[in-house]
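Journal club side-thread
Mid-discussion, someone asked how the predicted structure for our own chain would compare to the paper's figures. Pasting it here so we can look after the session.
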Amino acid sequence: MPEPILTLENAGLRQGGNWLFRGLDLTIDARDRLALIGRNGVGKTTLLKLIAGEIELDEGRRAVSPSLKIVRLEQDPDLAGFATLGDYARAGHDAPADHLLDSVASRLGADLDRDAATASGGERRRAALVRALAEQPDLLLLDEPTNHLSIGAVLWLARELATNETWKQRIVAVVSHDRCFLDEITTDTLHISGAARQLTQSKGNYTTWTQRREQQQLTHGRAKASKEREIKDLRDFNPGMLGSTPKAMKIYKMKQKQAEKLEEELKNLEIEAAALQEDAEIPLSLKAGGELSGFVVQIKNVGFRYTPDLPFLFRGAEMGIDSKSRIVLLGENGNGKTTLVRLMLGDLEATEGTITHAGACASPS
């Protein structure tokens, strides 16, 4: 494959009358593996649409090789006019062969025979991901690809994008909240700042970026504190210490001008501080009334099905949860993880067996 290159030059885009970002420059070279990061609402999905050519810039320029094939994974794919998810996955120019679609679908847990009109949001998303991967474009733009995937499917997708020779020859740009997934598949990081409305491109995966960010915050904090001390010293200068002479007043005025200049520099540092701190993790403090003795929830020989004519989602479930339990529920999509949680909460009643809550009576079997 030739080395396609896509660039955005001095790009600006308005949203609701305000600039979402401005003066943005970006160069994407062949075989780049890009993580697009930034807090919610700064324009990550919008930037993917710009890269894909789906929306126009308000200012600046987008340049792209005419031979570059771009596919963007949509968060909410439009399935209007398609009878099944498979029809949707096969649609479009250069539709992939059925065997490739089936192979990818089996890995991602996508049911391509599913009726498109009644498919859930997760089923539609998986079908869209199957379609995007099977098309094997030059530039693949993935917007939250791990949503609605099982852990096994996420691990397969990460391995596929990181090691398959097909994708090593292509460009991949990803928006994801899954840090481990980003670390596995990306080599460069694009950070959108909501405070500065700018894009910063740097080498390294997400973990490398966070480590560099911490060092930048530390260095910036020291520079800001040093400048604040300089300003205070200049502002505190008392010309009377040198006597009421023209020379003393000249020194005083000079120091005030220096202070004004440093205060302007400090304003810029404060803007930079806002950009450096906008992605900081918010501390979370959870308060509790103390430990409960015994089981908080106890599940004994529980089985569940939604209606008598449907098969059981599971049977013979046994579990005891106390106040020190830390539990993760694993399983393929549709195996009943959310249903089990709803049973624990009392939103559903067990078809068979008993569920006992602390201080409550057992649900009838």
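Post-session note: The CA atoms of residues 5 and 26 lie 10 Å apart.
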